[in-house]
Design brief:
Order of helices and strands: HEEHHHEEEEEHEEHHHEEHHHHHHHHH
Distance between the termini: 42 Å
Oligomer: single chain
Strand content: 5-15%
Number of helices: 17
Bound molecules: adenosine monophosphate, magnesium ion
Length: 484
């Protein structure tokens, strides 16, 4: 058997071929002194890539886009987007490239994409670069999201470029290689719709159907069925975020994937002390993307998506609006169904406990957690101990909880069910920061250890106690900065 080479990796150029109007052929900037900082071995294996190859110089050249198979046609993707509510007609991959699509051994197609690979024609005032801290942050948070069974893009590797990147100070540059079931965004449709080229829009919609919702192709109205499928997928996705206390941080329409995967991990974080209004991003002054706003923001983004599809939904403009509005009207029901069924499991309740009983019980509990700023993750995990009849742990010492717990216990919660859905380990903000700070200075061990812990979030292990608790008292509010 011959050793693998970059040339032997079959990378298709399907998006580039089918949608050239949305793809600017471009090459990655070659890193002066590349060094592999993180490699996702389980993901490499799932993709059918040889981890030993990816670790060697040729593999690292592949992971930075410096050495690609002849079949590859790397492109910067064009898209528009509503950023904090304001429309930008021309965003696009300013510092990213779609290298192409890989088929894994099970036959599933994945985009292989780089972030921080140098300026493209969409870079505007940006330098096209990324730095080590935020790229490792995307690696660990996306890996945690995946381990929590939430649909997400995945991080394959982070390579330090050996180039200094000017931010507030000079920081080490990095390239992230990631995979996604595709990088089609609501913003991709906004871009196509804004061209006024209906056939382009149709090709984009058909490409999305083919890749993500093949059943829609045989529906009576395929493009309406595409919209309905995305509404359902996004409702479920955001419900899953809410159930683990995830705050995406920058839910612009260009950061919402048609596939229903979590995408573009920038200033995201998990809540520690529960707060409906939790905001971590330093630039989200109005709290537009606060924890508790995420469900309505997703609905708003879907309305923008619907607008792009109207010309495909019906030739009659009024009827198209009517149909799209009706389909969007299903969002809240999908969201509630997903959230209630998730809460039923978090509370260990049987399927026989009705939605009408679960919803107020869960809402009341969240309000108690909010009023008392209780650590969200620790609370749910500790609650299983109460279901088992143990003493009430410290995290549950909340006045008024006694009465709530009495009503909950009367419903015979199953602690085993709770332990399967309530994580012990999430990427705690203070531990992420600690790991990234030393990684930026060249010490990778805390980062590697954190990744190992969050890969098995439900499996409590001795010796890992410090990974299971919130920030120490007095560490102040946590703030994240956009993925620059
Ligand atoms: P994001 O907030 O990361 O989703 O990015 C929003 C837009 O800004 C996208 O079009 C990015 O490609 C672009 N962008 C972000 N950072 C840079 C950078 N350093 N250089 C060029 N473009 C960038
Ligand atoms: Mg983005």
């Amino acid at each position: 058997m011959t050793a693998p080479t970059a040339a032997s990796i079959a990378l298709e150029g399907r998006f580039a071929r089918e949608l050239p109007e949305l793809a600017v052929p471009w090459r990655a900037e070659e890193p002066p002194a590349p060094q592999l900082l993180a490699l996702n071995e389980p993901l490499a294996t799932d993709l059918g890539l040889d981890a030993d190859f990816l670790r060697c110089a040729d593999g690292i050249a592949f992971l930075t886009g410096a050495a690609l198979p002849d079949t590859a046609t790397p492109v910067a993707q064009a898209y528009s987007g509503h950023q904090f509510g304001a429309f930008s007609p021309r965003l696009g991959d300013g510092r990213a490239l779609l290298l192409g699509e890989l088929t894994d051994p099970s036959g599933t197609l994945h985009d292989l994409h780089l972030k921080g690979s140098g300026p493209t024609p969409f870079a505007r005032a940006g330098d096209g670069r990324a730095v080590v801290g935020p790229m490792l942050r995307e690696f660990v948070i996306s890996e945690a999201t995946h381990a929590l069974r939430i649909p997400t893009t995945r991080s394959l590797a982070v390579v330090a470029t050996g180039r200094g990147v000017q931010r507030e100070s000079l920081l080490p540059g990095a390239v992230l290689a990631r995979t996604a079931s595709s990088h089609l965004r609501v913003g991709s449709f906004q871009f196509a719709a804004a061209t006024g080229d209906r056939e382009l829009l149709r090709r984009l919609a058909d490409h999305a159907i083919d890749r993500h919702y093949p059943d829609a192709a045989s529906a009576e109205h395929p493009h309406l069925a595409l919209f309905e499928a995305v509404v359902a997928a996004q409702a479920k996705l955001v419900a899953q975020w809410m159930l683990v206390g995830f705050v995406h941080g920058v839910m612009n329409t260009d950061n919402m994937a048609i596939s229903g995967e979590t995408i573009d991990f920038g200033p995201c974080a998990f809540v520690d002390a529960f707060d409906h209004a939790a905001v971590f991003s330093s630039i989200d002054h109005q709290g537009r993307y606060a924890y508790g706003n995420q469900p309505v923001i997703a609905e708003w983004n879907l309305a923008r998506f619907a607008e792009t599809l109207l010309p495909l939904i019906d030739d009659d403009a009024d009827r198209a609006v009517e149909r799209a509005t009706e389909a969007l009207g299903e969002y809240r029901a999908h969201y509630s169904a997903a959230w209630i069924s998730g809460m039923r499991m978090k509370l260990g309740l049987a399927a026989t406990v009705t939605d009408e009983a679960v919803a107020p019980l869960a809402t009341e509990l969240l309000n108690l957690l909010h009023e008392n700023r209780v650590d969200f993750t620790s609370f749910f995990r500790a609650l299983a101990g109460v279901a088992r009849g143990g003493d009430r742990p410290a995290v549950l010492e909340v006045e008024a909880l006694g009465e709530w717990a009495g009503r909950w216990l009367a419903l015979s919660p199953d602690a085993g069910v709770m332990d399967r859905v309530n994580p012990v380990y999430i990427p705690r903000n203070h531990l992420v920061e600690e790991a990234l700070a030393v990684a930026t200075a060249g010490e990778m061990r805390p980062f590697d250890a954190l990744v190992e812990v969050i890969r098995r979030p439900f499996d409590e292990r001795p010796g890992l106690e410090r990974y299971a608790v919130g920030a120490p008292d007095g560490s102040g509010p946590y703030m994240t900065f956009c993925g620059t």
